[in-house]
Amino acid sequence: MGYFSENTIVTETGHTIPSFLSRLASSAVDIAITVAFSIAIFFLIYPFGYFPTVGDAIGLKEATQNLHDYQLSSYLYTDENDVISYIQKDNYEGYEEILQNYYFVYQQETNEVNPSPKNYSVQDYNHNVLFLPLTTDFVVDSPYFEFAKGEDGKPDASKIGVVREALYVDGKLSEETKQNLKYYFQRRYDEAVEEFNGESYVISASRTLSGLTVVIEAMSVMPPFIVFYVVLPLASEKRKTIGKRIMNQATIDISGQKLKWYWVLARSVIFIITFVLASFLDNIVASIAVLITVFLVSLGFVTFSRKRRALHDYLARSIVVKDDGFEYLEIKKEEDGEEDIKR
Q1: What angle do CA 184, 190, 192 make, to 5 degrees?
Q2: Residue 13, CB-side half-sphere exposure with 13 Å CA sphere
Q3: Which of 232-241's residues contact partners 24+ apart within 8 Å by CB, and which partners?
Q4: In whole angstroms, what is the distance from residue 226 CA to residue 318 CA?
Q5: Phi and psi at residue 142, in whole multiples of 5°?
Q6: Do residues 163 and 97 share a domain?
Q7: Would you say 128 and 121 are in contact if contact means Cβ atoms under 8 Å apart?
């Protein structure tokens, strides 16, 4: 059956089924051509800054810059190598500095970028980050931090908390303690990132950027797809894509007739749905997984079905056959009114 069959497969209507490798080759050609044109269109319409593009016209560049301004101003992200990413530090002091900038610079009303600052106080930082109580009236349960002492030598809640004196040995922190503090501040950093990404203005900026990105992706992918998978087959007598022309294949109705135009469109539905689903997923890994899954499922149909029909062939009542110069079967009505299929 399918890939494992070495015998020539002939349908009930007398058409020859192309080999598995031939089907795979024609699909590979079509995919390669579509992807090449999609990439070319993408580079022409995405706002890289070299020349005005459609992306500029619809505001993609501004939307990207808007979100990046929020991210970089928060001190929670870096643009190393012009790529926005999370920050990795080798020591706890680095994460501590990031969090203090986030609390006392970005989240203050004097910040010109933040449209909705929380105006965090020292007490808020001590409580949220160091897990210290809001006042010195309560017992300190934090295993790593304590209130800093004021000029009178007493704990002062108005000052940023410090590492417990008991953790110092000969005036120094052990490597184990430093590592524990690093992990501690990493978790607080992750919480700050989560808080930042949950801000309404960040969510709005992210959704705007995602929506415009989907538009650019659709403008890059859909025109080549429609041309190579819909227009060309519809313009072809035997419903051929470029790959099928090269591999000498044709697409017909399972009854041996010419495939109706609406079935040609139906063959494309599964690809359109897959693309739309993949585009609206925020996770690039999930998007790729969806595309690969649909491809493998369709490949499985071709591999194991007796007539090497792909998933879209089942949806559209179609079958791919060798183009050996065949003519479509004609349906003639006999005198008794019954239909008879003849060549």
Answers
A1: 105
A2: 25
A3: 233/264, 234/261, 234/264, 238/323, 239/264, 239/318, 240/323, 241/26, 241/30
A4: 18
A5: -65, 130
A6: yes
A7: no
CB count within 10 Å of CB 298 equals: 20
For residues 238 and 247, give the distance between their C-alpha atoms in angstroms, rounded to a whole number.
13
Positions in the chain short of pLDDT 70: 1-7, 282-283, 329-343
Cβ neighbourhood burial of 248 (10 Å; 0-12, 13-18, 19+): middle
At residue 194, the pLDDT reads 97
pLDDT given at position 280: 72
Within this chain, do residues 187 and 217 fall inside the same structural domain, yes or no?
A: no
DSSP 81-110: GG--EE---SSHHHHHHHHHHIIIIITSTT
Please check whether residues 138 and 96 belong to one and the same domain: yes
Residue 312: partners with Cβ closer than 8 Å, 6 or more residues away? 266, 267, 268, 269, 270, 271, 298, 318
Tell me if 53 sits within 8 A of 41, measured CB to CB. no
Residues 217 and 148 in one domain: no
Total-model pTM: 0.77
- Alpha-carbon distance of 258 to 214, in angstroms, equals 36
Instruction: Read off the amino acid at residue 182.
Output: K
Helical (H) or strand (E) element with 47: none
Same domain, 181 and 216: no
252: in domain: yes
Answer yes or no: do 194 and 83 share one domain: yes
Which of 97, 87, 92 minimizes the C-alpha distance to 176?
92
